[in-house]
Amino acid sequence: MRIFKPKLSDFLLDLHQSLAHQGLAKSLDISIGMPALFANLAASRSRHISSQKIAQLRLKRNGFTLIEILIAIFILATVLTTVYAAYTGTFRLMKDTRRGDNIYSMARTAMNRMSKDMESVCSRKGSFRFASGEIEKEDFMELSFLSSAHLNFYDERSSGIAVISYFVVENDEKDGCILKRRDELYRDKTEEAEEEVSREGGYILCEGLQSLIYKFYDDSGEEYDSWDSESDSKTQNDKVPSVVSIQMDFINPDDRDRPYRFMTKVFLPAAANK
């Protein structure tokens, strides 16, 4: 009895036909034999395994790693720091602007009032009274004189020659001193009584003063650090200065060595009439 032994070529042909519907027929090349088939099968299996690994990696990367979280926190902290710096800088600028406006307003009001008072300097019974004085607190001076610029907030009909005084007092609540203006109708009083009342009462002109300095000039332009119309000096006796220079320094909280400084000069018409 003869045993039928199929040829290898016939086996491969049958295998090619049976696998045609699986898309492997094109990969099966009879002319090159079995190695081509096994090579294609191995490549298909490798692609299948690679797809599974990619799917597994995608499932594992649904969350964030520790390094990613730390980088996100660092970026957020940088942004918040920048925003906070800009935010605080804006409010600091607004605060400095409001403080500067307040100081400028006080200085303008005070100097306008002082200028009007000095421009209205007058005599009483042919005699002038104009005197400056130093106080215990350094860099401050006081001033007192006769003027027709009398103000009475309670009686608008009140008028006449008044003794106007400018003096400073310490501020217990804030830094710096307070400048006050005292206005009282002139009456015949003793010097002791006048000295006593000249340091009481008064209305606040400004606050936060660091210094208040006056300079006085006679009709020839000579400068004086003080003035007293009751002195024996020929240039000052029974006279008023032709020009008074006023220098106000307000405290600068950011730099005490660079205060807000305001200066003006007041011309006294009464000096030319003497």
In words, what does this structure look like?
It is a single chain. The chain has a domain of 179 residues. Helices cover 38% and strands 23% of the residues. It contains five helices and eight strands. The protein is elongated, with a radius of gyration of 49 Å.
Estimated structural class: alpha+beta
Query: Would you identify the regions where 5 or more consecutive residues have pLDDT less than 50?
Result: 1-5, 24-34, 190-197
- Average pLDDT taken over every residue: 78
- State Rg: 49 Å
Secondary structure tally: strands: 8
The number of helical segments is 5
* Overall shape: elongated
Query: Considering DSSP H and I runs of 4 or more, what fraction of the residues is helical?
Result: 25-40%
Question: Which percent band covers the strand fraction?
Answer: 15-25%
Query: Which sequence of SSEs, written as H and E, runs from N to C?
Result: HHHEEEEHEEEEH
Distance between the termini: 165 Å
* Main beta-sheet annotation: 8 strands, antiparallel
Task: Set out the fold topology.
Blueprint: H1 8-18, H2 34-60, H3 66-119, E1 130-134, E2 141-147, E3 162-170, E4 177-185, H4 191-197, E5 203-217, E6 223-224, E7 243-250, E8 260-267, H5 269-273
Please provide a brief summary of the model.
With 274 residues, the protein is of the alpha+beta class. The chain is 38% helix and 23% strand.
